[in-house]
UniProtKB/TrEMBL annotation:
Location in the cell: Cell membrane
Lineage of the organism: Bacteria, Pseudomonadati, Pseudomonadota, Alphaproteobacteria, Hyphomicrobiales
Protein known as: Cobalamin biosynthesis protein CobD
Organism: Bosea lathyri
Pathway noted in the entry: Cofactor biosynthesis; adenosylcobalamin biosynthesis
An example Gene Ontology molecular-function term: threonine-phosphate decarboxylase activity
Keyword Metal-binding in annotation: no
Keyword Cell membrane recorded: yes
Major subcellular location class: membrane
């Protein structure tokens, strides 16, 4: 599969997902591809991750589990892509619909917007309830500014690994490419944690997720900087400076890039010390602006996000047109 095939597919998938999302009725009936992947990961974790085994053996078991997960995801995607290919040019639409289920532009916007609505309509309690649906940190430790920062940080990071990264791998490898990425990313979210149970078993998933997200995290930062340049209430210069100064100081090799870009663009400070359950993570601050974020800042971040999504779609359309004209 060449870029001549994958870039039109990417452009159409992005457009369809932004317009339609994933229907709630369909989710209620059959679930979602990510929930299917999650169910398989949970079964592999239960079957292969024996707490009686040595650290080395659990590490090997984690590699085997990841390999099996990727094999299932790849085989399924190849079969579906082949079936769509049998339809000739008409197969692009069902293929794009399938790929769109692995993107999250619309749902991410809706979830983050609910946090702004929660703060605006329900104060701190409303904000905490809404933000608890999208972040893993303890919402009871957050004041209103902490709730707003958490929502903006989630928007920034998930723009990278929920939209730009799957779009990147869709553009590179078509439906198999995006399916493999989502399998890796879902495995990391479920077992890629430094807990006693998953430190060894989830090692391969966490390391591979870091690698496959590396190009997209940098691209996401560039998209947010470009979006800031088009936004009269954001600063592309500050976004660029924050990325250069702070991105590599984040404890994650990838999350710092979009978070620093968003922080600089909006004149905020993001990340910093955070509490997950009863554990406090002393991370570096991204950006040198104010830490007192508000619901209005969430709205500004969402506007920047929408512009960046349009720029991503424009890149896909422009790339497709360029490849088709050669």
């Amino acid at each position: 599969m060449s870029f001549t095939d994958t870039l039109p597919l990417l452009a159409l998938a992005l457009l369809l997902e932004a317009a339609l999302g994933y229907p709630q009725g369909l989710y209620a009936r059959i679930g979602h591809p990510v929930t299917w992947l999650g169910a398989l990961i949970a079964k592999l974790d239960h079957a292969l991750n024996s707490e009686a085994a040595s650290f080395a053996l659990r590490k090997i078991a984690g590699v085997a589990a990841l390999a099996l997960l990727l094999a299932v995801a790849l085989a399924t995607a190849l079969v579906l892509a082949w079936l769509c290919g049998r339809l000739g040019p008409l197969g692009l639409l069902p293929l794009a619909l399938l790929a769109s289920t692995l993107l999250a532009q619309r749902s991410l916007h809706e979830h983050v917007a609910r946090v702004a609505q929660g703060l605006e309509n329900g104060g701190l309690a409303g904000g905490r309830k809404a933000v608890s649906m999208i972040v893993g940190r303890n919402p009871d430790t957050l004041d209103e500014a902490g709730v707003a920062r958490a929502a903006i940080e989630s928007l920034s990071e998930n723009f990278s690994d929920g939209i730009v990264a799957p779009a990147f791998w869709l553009g590179v490898g078509g439906l198999p490419g995006i399916a493999l990425y989502k399998a890796i990313n879902t495995a990391d979210s479920m077992i890629g944690h430094k807990t006693p149970r998953h430190l060894a078993f989830g090692w391969a998933s966490a390391r591979l997720d870091d690698i496959v997200n590396l190009p997209a995290s940098r691209l996401t930062a560039l998209l947010l900087i470009a979006a800031a340049a088009l936004d009269g209430q954001a600063s592309a210069t500050s976004a660029w400076r924050a990325v250069g100064h702070d991105a590599r100081r984040h404890r994650s090799p990838n999350a710092g890039w979009p978070e620093a870009a968003m922080a600089g663009a909006l004149g905020l400070r993001l990340a910093g010390p955070r509490t997950y359950g009863a554990v406090t993570v002393n991370d570096s601050w991204m950006g040198d602006g104010r830490a007192e974020a508000t619901a209005a800042d969430i709205r500004r971040a969402l506007r920047l996000y929408r512009t960046a999504c349009l720029l991503l779609w424009g890149l896909a359309v422009g790339g497709a047109a360029a490849w088709l004209s050669t």
